[in-house]
Amino acid sequence: MQTRQLGQSDLLVTPICLGTMTFGEQVGERDAHAILDRAVARGVNFLDTAEMYSVPARKETFGATETIIGRWLAARPGMRQKIVLATKVSGPSRGMPWIREGAGMTQEDIVASCEASLRRLQVEVIDLYQIHWPERNVPAFGQVYYDPTKERTKTPIYEQLEALNKLVRQGKVRSIGVSNETPYGVHEFVRVAEQYELPRIASVQNPYCLVSRGVDNALDETMHRLGVSLLAYSPLGFGLLTGKYDESGTSGPGAPKEGRIAKYESVRSQRWGRPEALAAARRYNALAREHGLTPTRMALAWCYGNWRVASTIIGVTSVAQLEEDLDAWGTALSPELLAAIDQVRWELRDPAA
């Protein structure tokens, strides 16, 4: 895999990124290290994590994923120079007081979170430091409509960029990004940065898959015109697009117990657990089989080959899953299949948006 420039930064990343939020919950440390070793051996140079991981978020596992990665790096001299390491500062609490109290995200919060991540990761610099979700009120994580009456902003975008600028000047962060953002948010981060000569975001990390194509509704134009790269997460729709739930559904006695949607109520209650999302996934999975592909291969190939995507974040719980996801790289989807995919979207839209 050739590397790609991330936005207007100097970061060069592989088009596949290893997401690690399962480490410390579904995946133990020994298996996590094996997955990391194999990903690097297969050519992946890009790792993504966050201070709030493992998922689902719990006080007992807060910071566990970064700690696991830190011990992996410490045990492998020279590995740090081979990878681009990304992590995230959590936005306002969202019911997680063990991260921070209050509704805001102050400059002090951002700096303290970054320094804690550096300690857990056992590194001196984070290559890509991202804001995990907006400080302001936005429709995210399954919410559909923006509601101005819910605005509780405490920290303007300018102040957030000032804090990130401090970290860049201190050599603790190389580049910055955002996540779960809107077209307005991406544009405003770039506008404010250019107006005040502050660090410019290199990327936006948002969900993007066959059952959740909200990126295509104006965010893609914003990114293209502003030179901001997309890091696509949940390309398999939290497992919906692997076909594992096609027969059993996402809950009940027949559902695969190892699946995140089946295992965690907090996930089922959000976008991925909607009946409409499962129904759409079944349509796409059937379409893949009709064209001689596994659902996983088609869903990943669609994301890997999409002009909007700089790097696709894959999350796995075993080396076998990692191999399957990486083997999908290079799969070309025919014009006929792409047209059929768009026809399903025309009918069913984005049920997991």
TrEMBL record:
Keywords: Oxidoreductase
Annotated ranges, domain NADP-dependent oxidoreductase: 15-344
UniProt xrefs under Gene3D superfamilies: NADP-dependent oxidoreductase domain
Any GO MF annotation of the entry: oxidoreductase activity
Protein origin, superkingdom: Bacteria
Pfam families in the record: Aldo_ket_red
UniProt key word Oxidoreductase: yes
Record-linked PANTHER family: NAD(P)-LINKED OXIDOREDUCTASE SUPERFAMILY PROTEIN, NADH-SPECIFIC METHYLGLYOXAL REDUCTASE-RELATED
Name assigned to this protein: Aldo/keto reductase
